[in-house]
Write a structure and sequence with these properties.
0% of the residues lie in helices and 52% in strands. It has 332 residues and is mostly beta strands. It has one domain: Beta Barrel (Lipocalin), CATH 2.40.128.130. It has a twelve-stranded antiparallel β-barrel.
Length: 332
């Protein structure tokens, strides 16, 4: 699954400027890691697929640019996101591939824009409501002999509530462009053992409400995310009508270019350290192939983070496909 809500988290970063140690806000990207893991390149059957994905992130540790925690940090930074994703896969192929556009409508609650002050990781605010919308209008998937691959272009529309400086924002306040891919390699002939990799390169537009003078408008730096997983399918019934898939998963995210503009109209954004985060965890899927229904659970523990919070991520949900055309009944 791909989390198509994008969020901005503002965190404490201590840098030395003119001999004075100060705290500044770190402008995050829009891709929330934890969307993919197992089956990253798998394409739904032709028809409509609805997927619901709930994600919770929580952190009580704030790291500096060297990955060391700031001492005496109080509180917890956390949020929930509920994604409602609708895929459509037509029966006929396009350019030798299946066409798979989709849209994600998202509801968020928590401090998506956290106002972190001093040693207080919790900003004491937090909002809830309809968040940013992700649309992937161009997305192609190929079923090959030993690998499934998807690649596409998507964009983030800043439909979530955002006011610069507010503590109850649930949107990012800027447009985003995403170049995405997903790959599932079938290691064994029966396709039960897989290696998976998904990528997202996000390019951001100007953040609304930050242009208070010439050269002050903030444009967040680009970010790159990879999500990976190794999985094994185990039949729960001899006729393979019920399957259990277990595996190890992880994510890695890096800021790859400087932000531009002046923070608060004073501090150059390109003086703020780049952020990154790395996590490992586990995933389990319960699959009913005949009903085109599956449920999943994932847990990630972040083992390293630079210039941002370090915490953990829970993800759970399900997906169901309404096949068009309907499959033929099995012959006796």
């Amino acid at each position: 699954m791909r989390l198509q809500i994008r969020f901005v988290t503002v965190l404490l970063v201590c840098i030395l400027l003119a001999g004075v140690s100060s705290a500044f806000a770190q402008q995050k990207g829009q891709w929330v890691p934890g969307q993919f893991g197992l089956n990253a390149g798998v394409i739904p059957d032709p028809g409509f697929t609805y997927a619901n994905l709930a994600l919770n992130y929580s952190a009580s540790q704030l790291n500096n640019a060297n990955g060391n925690p700031f001492p005496n940090v109080n509180g917890t930074y956390s949020f929930w996101v509920d994604e409602n994703i609708i895929y459509y896969v037509p029966k006929h192929k396009f350019l030798g591939a299946y066409f798979m556009p989709y849209i994600a409508l998202n509801y968020a609650t928590g401090e998506l824009v956290a106002s972190i002050t001093g040693t207080n990781l919790s900003g004491g605010g937090g909002g809830s409501g309809f968040a940013d919308t992700f649309v992937e209008p161009f997305n192609l998937g190929w079923h090959l002999k030993r690998v499934d691959v998807v690649a596409g272009y998507g964009f983030t529309a800043p439909t979530g509530r955002f006011t610069n400086g507010a503590s109850n924002n649930v949107g990012s306040g800027y447009w985003g462009n995403n170049i995405t891919s997903g790959t599932t390699l079938y290691i064994t002939n029966n396709k039960a053992t897989t290696a998976n990799l998904s990528t997202d390169w996000e390019i951001h537009g100007q953040k609304s409400g930050t242009n208070v003078g010439p050269g002050t408008a903030i444009t967040p730096g680009q970010a790159f995310t990879i999500e990976w997983g190794f999985g094994q399918i185990l039949p729960l019934k001899k006729d393979f009508s019920r399957l259990l898939q277990l595996g190890f998963v992880g994510y890695d995210q890096w800021q790859v270019s400087h932000s531009s503009g002046l923070l608060g109209g004073i501090i150059p954004e390109n003086m703020i350290p780049f952020y990154s985060v790395h996590a490992m965890g586990v995933q389990s899927n319960f699959i009913l192939p005949a009903k085109d229904l599956s449920a999943f659970f994932k847990y990630y523990d972040e083992y390293r983070a630079l210039a941002r919070p370090q915490g953990r991520t829970f993800v759970f949900g399900f997906s169901w496909t309404l096949r068009i055309p309907k499959p033929e009944p099995p012959t006796q």
